[in-house]
Hints:
The chain has a single domain, classed as ABC transporter involved in vitamin B12 uptake, BtuC. The chain starts with 7 loop residues before the first helix and ends in an 18-residue tail after the last helix. The chain has helices at residues 8-34, 42-60, 63-87, 92-110, 136-140, 145-163, 165-175, 177-182, 187-213, 225-235, 240-262, 269-286. The chain has 304 residues and is mainly α.
Amino acid sequence: MDLSSINPILLLASLMVAATPILLAAIGELVVERAGVLNLGVEGMMITGAVCGFVVAVNSGSPWLGFVGAAVGGALLSVVFGVLTQFLLSNQVATGLALTLFGLGLSALLGQGYIGIKAPSFPDWDIPLLGDIPIVGPIVFQHDPMVYVGLIIVAGVWAFLKYSRAGLILRAVGENHEAAHALGYHVVRVRMLAIMFGGACAGLGGAYLSLVRVPQWTEGMTAGAGWIALAIVVFASWRPWRLLLGAYLFGGVTVLQLNLQAAGAAIAVEYLSMAPYLATIAVLVIMRAGRAPGSLGQSFHASR
């Protein structure tokens, strides 16, 4: 095994790219769960966003329109979940699992005619001056725009939850929806908006895989990324900045195992491929999660 072939600067730069789809999906799910809703359909919304974004980008020639299409596709699928759980009061866990299965099937159908087609290029941003800083520049300031969009969304969600009145209302709904309803807040409306935001973010995460990481359409290309996003939300104790750390941890292990494979590590490829998921499980076991929102997973009955 030749470890000298692993460039640490390139490794750290690749970490940010590998973490971005997980980060986008996880930050959306964090908002959903802070509103008291447990949506296990993240994987389905990600794969739907991946195929919607790819189809729109290929037909329009614009990756930016592809990301818009992915966000719309993910949000529309999340509306199905929202209607079933918030209006028809179906079980959130069962509905989320069904949403994942539906998304996987729908994406396979929509993507049939796009297998083997290359997505429009999405160039990196080489930020002037900052990109030329030794070591830090190549690691932080020479990425595609969606890496920075993900960081901006994390910062925006943190500020929204901590400082805005709307964020306070959302947290109140998630902690005790009965008390929030008694104060005059529209619980179902707040939750539906949170669910749609989560779906849009999951769609963006899926599109990042099909338009930037690969970039082509392959059935099942999310490969469990939605489930990892769910785990990272718990690891982060429903806090945006800890979520960023969790996403980068998973991204780092993912990139490291790929580099070890390329360096000829004397470890079976199957074991190396398992490493990111095993690391996620280990972290969840070792670190104690914080208290979940009080109304998480509970349906709201307005007649009470």
